[in-house]
Amino acid sequence: MDIDLDRPEAIRSRVKRIIAGDFDYSHFATTIMWLRERVAKNSTLHELGDFLAHPYRDRGPTSAAVSDLLMDFLDNLEVLDPKKVGAELAERAVKVEEMYFEFRQALLDAGLLLAEEDEALATAYEAFVLFTLSCLHESVLITKGWDVVLRVAITNNGNLAIFGRTFLNKNGRAFRTNFLIFSTTLAAADWLIASVTAGFVREPLMYTAAPKLISFEGR
After folding, report:
1. Which pLDDT score is estimated for 6?
2. Which residues of the chain register pLDDT less than 70?
3. How far is it, in rounded angstroms, from Cα 140 to Cα 185?
4. Residue 52, Cα to own-chain centre: how many angstroms?
5. For position 89, what pLDDT does the model report?
6. Annotated domain spans of the chain
7. Pairwise CA distance, residues 129 & 200, whole Å
8. 3-state secondary structure the chain
9. From residue 77, how far is each of 21, 38, 81, 141 by CA, in Å?
10. What pLDDT does 219 receive?
11. Biggest distance spanned by C-alpha atoms of the chain
């Protein structure tokens, strides 16, 4: 990190760019990495900063939760009801909106966002969601026994989300497993026409349809 970024005024200049709508990927990345050192370690914003710093994650709340989830899947693979499990995953999924509100509050707490600028920051909400998806896309969770690749997908309600993909091996059979981890309220159709996407996301988000919130192929 550049030395001047240790100064709050350097981060403030980037926040002003975000508020003005004149920003790119680096403005969010730099601001979140600065905030990462100043928010609670169990916050979703801190976890997002960890993904930025370490795309291959072998620790943290997301890695731990996914590891526990896969252990439960493996133990009960023969009797799992994908429809029921899918509903539970939708309820448990980390909501990217929560990250945005933590981002907003952290900026206010640090004095980097003025109260009168709050409404202007809200116009960057969609961009924040896209930034988050871009950070998580193609990251890898290294859990106890599994490497889980995170990818952007479209849920059956048309919204963008992050699914994990891995293989569960049991009784000599391999089950390719896809499951919801992060959810958003951003419609894929909106993403396709969003003006901020050009040159903004870290890499092209090659998402695919995921009609089920969980699937076990090969079962």
Report:
1. 66
2. 1-6, 191-219
3. 23
4. 10
5. 80
6. 3-217
7. 12
8. CCHHHHCHHHHHHHHHHHHHCCCCHHHHHHHHHHHHCCCCCCCHHHHHHHHHHCCEECCCHHHHHHHHHHHHHHHCCCCCCHHHHHHHHHHHCEEHHHHHHHHHHHHHHCCCCCHHHHHHHHCCHHHHHHHHHHHHCCCEEECCCCEEEEEEEECCCCEEEEEEEEEEEECCEEEEEEEEEEEEEEEHHHHHHCHHHCCCCCCCCCCEECCCCEEEECC
9. 47, 41, 9, 21
10. 38
11. 61
Distance between CA atoms of residues 24 and 45, nearest Å = 19
Contacts of 87 (CB under 8 A, 6+ apart): 213
pLDDT at 216: 45
* Paired sense of beta strands 159-170 and 94-95, if any: unpaired
Residues in a beta bridge with 160: 154
Place of tokens 């193609």: 138
Closest of 206, 132, 130, 201 to residue 165, by C-alpha: 206
pLDDT tens-digit profile of 59-91? 899 998 899 888 888 888 777 777 777 777 888
In the structure encoding, which two tokens stand for residue 117, read together? Answer: 């600028």
Residue written as tokens 């590891």?
67
**How many Cα atoms sit within 13 Å of 39 on the Cβ side?**
26
